[in-house]
């Protein structure tokens, strides 16, 4: 299992090793990443639809997702609040004149759920025995990680500045530690070994990654649980950020997890101001690297 975990992680670091200067190529990579994400989510749904007794397990899965979301929400808010008390952050004055359309953002947040739902319908009614779905999802994920590594390297960001951003590093650390505490507390509720509970708690909002990695290791039902937990984090973050970012910026930035450097960044920028942007990018960047590393390590245990 450890070898397979390294195989999954290698493309991310390989992609980060290449510096590109062609903007048109980076645009192509951007659209390819977006298409791959939805393709992988559809494959995740397809695997769920092919699962024996799926309809009978939906109630159990709903309880597991609810426990994960609730425990992580409480633990993350507590950990990030403590970090804010220790290292308060001044957001300055936000730019109120260019707020994004929150209705549009929420609809965009639902698109991953639609991709998985459509894939599940295909697996349930059209392709109940389609072979090679798991292998195709794994290779697609490896390609996605390679392309994301390219994006991270070529985003015009200094790795040194990201790693040395004190607020971003502290927020990422607080989120990781509080998530792992929540994972350990959930062991009796989830009924899984400690390392599997910690892997489930280590998605940090990266639903296309966690759904496939957990699904490959623990089966499609747990892959669905991991996906729903992380996509709900993103949706909750969209509602939470404008409400708390001025009083508790670390809480607003941190709870978005890995999405703070991409999907939730426009909301952080418009609600919290420019001062929040480098912190959000640094935190999201670090969590984007830590998520596959931690999941790979925890899933390597027997």
TrEMBL record:
One Gene Ontology molecular-function label: L-lysine efflux transmembrane transporter activity
Top-level taxon in the UniProt lineage: Bacteria
Sorted UniProt keywords: Membrane, Transmembrane, Transmembrane helix
Membrane-spanning segments: 6-21, 28-49, 61-84, 105-130, 136-156, 168-192, 204-228, 235-257, 277-301
GO CC annotations, alphabetized: plasma membrane
The name this protein goes by in its record: DUF340 domain-containing protein
Organism ancestry: Bacteria, Pseudomonadati, Pseudomonadota, Gammaproteobacteria, Pseudomonadales
């Amino acid at each position: 299992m450890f070898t397979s975990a390294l195989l999954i992680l290698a493309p991310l670091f390989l992609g980060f090793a290449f510096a590109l200067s062609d903007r048109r190529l980076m645009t192509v990579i951007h659209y390819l990443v977006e298409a791959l994400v939805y393709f992988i989510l559809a494959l995740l749904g397809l695997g769920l639809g092919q699962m024996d007794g799926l309809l009978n397990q939906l109630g159990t899965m709903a309880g597991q997702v609810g426990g994960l979301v609730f425990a992580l929400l409480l633990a993350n808010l507590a950990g990030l609040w403590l970090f804010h008390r220790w290292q308060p952050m001044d957001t300055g004055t936000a730019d109120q004149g260019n707020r994004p359309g929150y209705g549009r953002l929420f609809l965009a947040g639902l698109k991953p759920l639609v991709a998985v739902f459509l894939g599940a319908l295909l697996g349930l009614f059209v392709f109940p025995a389609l072979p090679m779905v798991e292998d195709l999802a794994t290779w697609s994920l490896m390609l996605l990680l390679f392309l994301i590594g390219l994006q991270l390297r070529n985003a015009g960001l200094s790795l040194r500045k990201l790693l040395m951003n004190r607020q971003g590093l502290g927020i990422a650390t607080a989120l990781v530690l509080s998530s792992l505490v929540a994972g350990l507390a959930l062991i009796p509720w989830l009924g899984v070994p400690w390392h599997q509970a910690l892997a489930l708690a280590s998605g940090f909002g990266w639903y296309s990654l966690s759904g496939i990695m957990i699904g490959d290791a623990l089966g499609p039902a747990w892959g669905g649980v991991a996906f729903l937990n992380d996509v709900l984090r993103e949706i909750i973050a969209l509602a939470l950020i404008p409400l708390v970012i001025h009083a508790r910026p670390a809480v607003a930035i941190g709870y978005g997890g890995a999405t703070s450097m991409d999907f939730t960044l426009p909301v952080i920028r418009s609600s919290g101001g420019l001062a929040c942007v480098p912190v959000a990018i640094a935190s999201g960047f670090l969590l984007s690297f830590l998520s596959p590393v931690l999941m790979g390590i925890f899933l390597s245990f027997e």
